[in-house]
Amino acid sequence: MNTRLLTAVLATLPLVACTAVGPDFNAPAAPAVATYKQQPLKSTVAADLPLGEAQQFQLAPSVSVAWWYAFHSDKLNTLVAQALASSPSLAAAEATLRQSQQVYAAQSGATRYPLVSAKLGAQKQKSNNSGIGLAGGERIYEIYNAGVNVTYNFDLFGGNRRALEGYAAQADYQRYQLQGAQLTLAANVVTTAMSQAQYDAQIKATMAIIAAQQQQLDIAQKRYQLGAIAQGDVLSLQTLLAQTQATLPALQNRLAQTRTLLATLIDKTPAEAQLPQFTLADFQLPTALPLVVPSALVRQRPDIQASEALFHAASAQYGVAVASAYPQINLSANLGSQALAASSLFGAGSIVWGLASQLVQPLFNGGLQAGIKGAEASFDAAAANYRVTVLQAFRNVADVLQVLDSDAQILQAQAQAYQSAQAALNLVQQQYKIGSATYLQLLTAQQQAQQTQIALVAAQTQRLTDTVAFYQAMGGGMNTPSTTIAAQQSGVEK
User: Fold this and answer.
1) Could you read off the pLDDT of 200-235 as tens digits, one per residue?
2) What is the count of structural domains for the chain?
3) What is the mean pLDDT of the chain?
4) CB–CB of 180/478 below 8 Å?
5) CA–CA distance, 20 with 318 (Å, rounded to integer)
6) Contact, 221 vs 234, CB < 8 A?
7) Range of the domain at 101
């Protein structure tokens, strides 16, 4: 009968805790807007050259997780995969996530279920009966005991469950931090590879300009020796050549830095990394860009989801503070056996049991209300910070859309300048063949064409890297639809 009593008590424990004071967290609604800009952008202008295609913005519910495949570079895909698999920064973020999940699991077990412990013991005692007027003298006997102890906090007002809800929200926060780190790492690898292609092309164009200017200077020096030009003309060409030569080491340094950065991103030292060489021809410009609808953006961007998780954690902590002002009921029960002989330890006459309960109600605590108000202020701050994060995200998307539009226009203008410079060079080459243009004029035309090519390369690369920024602004597909720990927790409690 006593065993049935204890079993019945344990079975009813989860049913008692059914109320949780404090605010029930609900995910904030997305901004009620249909577009990111007052004048929606549907497509960009096109330029007649590689990487000059028009880009179309197509409404989509999400972005592909492996968005970098849109650039159609096998070398790039391999490098990103290597970085995601071996980055120590991601390993640290993953370990932090596992830690948060285990903390939640530990707290969940301690909160949801009673604490049950077993005890088994034996002791030998000696008593001296002569001292109290009894016959028999000394007596030595053994006592055996075994039992099960159960303790449980009824958590009538949900303070423990609110704390558990906060742990769940912290675990979700770490998950979104990991997703954000993955997105940032992939974007860094892609943009660095594109920058390597840019600097390589600009170095080649600069070296061609230096060669042309050197030839111009050689001709000028000969003409000066013949008395055909003044020394000032030679000095001007020397100055121009030195200025152009001074730009080359900076480009070479940037190219070298892209290689060391790529090595670091894939967890290699610069000396051991086997890195591919990238050129602009290795990339294709994505022409169909998935524009996530504003109502879905808050579920796609890891930074917004992380801020929401912190908001959720602050809500749970507010509930913990409110629950601290309510009574706390603790129950303890034990069922055991005690006998003088091990053979009769679990006999019918050796069963002992106990049941105790305790109610604690705060009567006076000078800091209790201050703690509640402080938790409420933290909740308000988290709500405001979430709003700031959402506004910054929508601003980021609007800025990226504007930049992509401007990039297309700049590239179109640079393409026209490059084509004009090439046409002028072709004309001077024809004139030089028939003797109507001097060699100096030919070198000047070649130099102008190379300079426009340097600017064109910069415009092409900028368009590529800003397209990467677009995928980042869309959340990069890292936050795939799933049920978070905090969502599961809320569903169980309600």
Assistant:
1) 999 999 998 899 889 888 988 998 898 888 888 889
2) 1
3) 83
4) yes
5) 11
6) yes
7) 18-114+155-326+369-493
